[in-house]
Design brief:
The protein has about 200 residues and is of the alpha/beta class. Helices cover about 35% and strands about 25% of the residues. It is globular.
Length: about 200
C-alpha cells in the first residue's frame, strides 16, 4: 500500500530520518552487530534505513518497496554505494529472493501497511538464513483505529493487528521472538530469529 500525502510527509523528513538513525535502529539492534551481513529492508522508502544499515557495517543491503517514486529516491540516495546497495519494486508478500538469502531483515514500521502481513512474515522467515534475525518496529491496531489516526491516515483496517496477533503470527511463521517491547496496543519493537 502506498502512503497518503500526510503520512508520506511524516515519514520522509529530517526529523524522522534522525529518529530512525539515532533511536529506532539502535533499539531494534539492541547491541547486535551487522558487520559483514547481507541485509534486507522491507518497505525501504527513500533509502534512509538502508543508508544507516550500511553505515553500521552491513556488507550488502537490499531494499524493496511497492512505490516506484520511493525506489527512485532510494536509488539516488544510495548511488555512492551502488556496488553494495540494491533497491527494487517488490512486495513483502512475495520477496524476490531465494530461500536463506539474508542474515538480517528490517521492518521500520511498514507491516501494518501490508494487506497480507501474515504472508509477509512467512516470506521473511523463508529468506532469512538459519538463525538469521528479523528486527521490527510497527504500530498496532490500538493506534491505527483511534479516530484521529483513522481520519488523517489511510490504514486499511483489514491489515491492522494487535500485539498478541503479531506475536502469534511471528511464531506461526517460524520466527522465535528474542526481544519484545510493547507500548500498550500502540506500538511494538523487537527481534525474532528464524527457528532452526
Amino acid at each position: 500500500m502506498k502512503l497518503n500525502a500526510l503520512e508520506f510527509a511524516l515519514m520522509n523528513n529530517a526529523v524522522r530520518a534522525a529518529s530512525q538513525r539515532w533511536i529506532e535502529t539502535r533499539l531494534m539492534l539492541a547491541g547486535r552487530s551487522l558487520t559483514g551481513q547481507r541485509v534486507l529492508e522491507i518497505g525501504c522508502g527513500r533509502g534512509v534505513g538502508l543508508d544507516i544499515l550500511l553505515g553500521l557495517g552491513a556488507s550488502e543491503v537490499v531494499g524493496i518497496d511497492v512505490d516506484p517514486r520511493m525506489i527512485r529516491l532510494a536509488r539516488r540516495r544510495l548511488g555512492p554505494y551502488n556496488h553494495r546497495a540494491k533497491v527494487r519494486i517488490a512486495d513483502a508478500e512475495a520477496i524476490p529472493a531465494p530461500d536463506a538469502s539474508f542474515d538480517s531483515i528490517f521492518d521500520f514500521g511498514i507491516l501494518h501497511h501490508v494487506p497480507g502481513w501474515p504472508k509477509a512474515l512467512r516470506e521473511v522467515a523463508r529468506v532469512l538464513t538459519p538463525a538469521g534475525t528479523f528486527s521490527f518496529e510497527d504500530i498496532l491496531r490500538g493506534l491505527t483505529t483511534a479516530w484521529p489516526i483513522r481520519l488523517l491516515f489511510d490504514h486499511p483496517q483489514s491489515s491492522q493487528f494487535s500485539g498478541e496477533e503479531f506475536r502469534a503470527t511471528l511464531e506461526e511463521a517460524g520466527l522465535q521472538i528474542v526481544a519484545w517491547r510493547q507500548w500498550g496496543e500502540w506500538a511494538v519493537i523487537g527481534q525474532a530469529v528464524r527457528s532452526a
